[in-house]
Specification:
The chain folds into two domains: about 210 residues, P-loop containing nucleotide triphosphate hydrolases (Rossmann fold), CATH 3.40.50; about 100 residues, Alpha-Beta Plaits (2-Layer Sandwich). Helices cover about 35% and strands about 25% of the residues. A six-stranded mixed beta sheet has the order 6-7-8-3-9-10, sandwiched between helices. Strands 12-13-11-14-15 form a five-stranded antiparallel beta sheet, covered by helices on one side. Strands 2-1-4-5 form a four-stranded antiparallel beta sheet, with helices on one face. Strand 9 and strand 10 form a beta hairpin.
Length: about 325
């Protein structure tokens, strides 16, 4: 569905995208991760023919993004970061107009609009003006506009930014349900790593305009981070004795010992038993499973969060007093 080779975009002295080569198969749901300015949105804008590449090639839905822009645009849906519907227009009318712009007959456009209004839960608000809709309703309307011509490929540029947690969850459910029904290929950018983790079967990490990782979320976490066992002690001397007893690579900071290892939960009982036999009292133990933010921190040296703030990821933690 997508094939690029050394795709590059420079803006005067800014090298936004530096030689991205990738393929996306039909039916895949791929998430592009990266900090602000990493090149995610620029890549999407080239793939959707909104800006031309400086160098390299890209074919989308079988067509060249430079030489065959019309054919590409006919076969894709694109939902950008802003709202696409006119604020003074009614939602249903905007859908029908969008369908007509893509060449649908009036009757077909009305039918498709009705189907999307129903499937995206917009029936109660579709005939209201766009300016009266909530943020979540507007984003669902944007997605409906991107789907009105039944594209085989949908681009979503940070679709849930600015939504509250409930609307984010609802929007994710709608996207996954639409994909399941229509087998749509979806490429999305997001700053919400839990969103990428739960939705995408493949994650591509971009930094400084280059792809630095490309794999499933599970394999990325296992390869670059692994589980973490954190042992807490009442005294630094106990932590030092524990570090000497544990025959695994670890880090010790004061009264804390951290071990990064695969399958941590299965190893904890044995480690605790070895320390008990050695007479080293453990005050607490925590098993932390890695997140995609941990992966990003490992790969780039900084954490990825909305707005670019660096925050330590807590992961999914199980704390047990012993």
């Amino acid at each position: 569905m997508i094939e690029t080779h050394e795709l590059t975009k420079h803006f005067k002295d800014v090298h936004a995208v530096e030689g991205i080569s990738l393929t996306v198969a039909p039916g895949e749901l791929v998430a592009l991760l990266g900090p602000n300015g990493a090149g995610k949105s620029t890549t999407l804008r080239m793939l959707t023919t909104l800006i031309p590449p400086t160098a390299g090639t890209a074919r989308v839905a079988g067509f060249d993004v430079v030489a065959q822009q019309r054919q590409v645009r006919q076969r894709i849906g694109y939902i950008g970061q802003g709202n696409g519907a006119g604020h003074s227009q009614r939602g249903r009318d905007e859908l029908i107009s969008q369908g007509r712009a893509y060449g649908l007959k009036a009757s077909e456009a009305r039918k498709r609009a009705a189907e999307l209004v129903d499937s995206l839960g917009l029936a109660e608000v579709a005939d209201r003006t766009v300016s009266t809709l909530s943020g979540g309703q507007r984003r669902r309307l944007d997605i409906a506009m991107g789907l009105i011509h039944a594209p085989g490929l949908l681009f979503l540029d940070e679709p849930s930014t600015g939504l509250d947690p409930q609307n984010r969850a609802n929007l994710q459910e709608h996207i996954l349900a639409l994909r399941a029904r229509r087998e749509t290929t979806i490429v999305l950018t997001t700053h919400y790593l839990d969103e990428a983790d739960s939705m995408a079967e493949r994650v591509i990490v971009i930094d400084h305009g280059r792809i630095i990782a490309d794999d499933t979320p599970a394999r990325l976490k296992a390869k670059h981070v692994g589980d973490r066992i954190t042992l807490g002690f009442d005294h630094e001397a106990d932590a030092a004795r524990a570090a000497a007893e544990i025959a695994r690579p670890l880090e010790r900071h004061g009264t804390t010992v951290r071990i990064s290892v695969a399958g941590a939960s299965r190893l904890v009982p044995g480690i605790l038993e070895d320390l008990r036999v050695a007479g080293v009292p453990v005050a607490e133990v925590a098993v932390t499973r890695p997140t995609l933010d941990d992966v990003f921190l490992t790969l780039t040296g900084r954490s990825l969060r909305e707005g670019g703030a660096a925050v330590e990821s807590a992961g999914e933690r199980e704390l047990v007093e012993v």
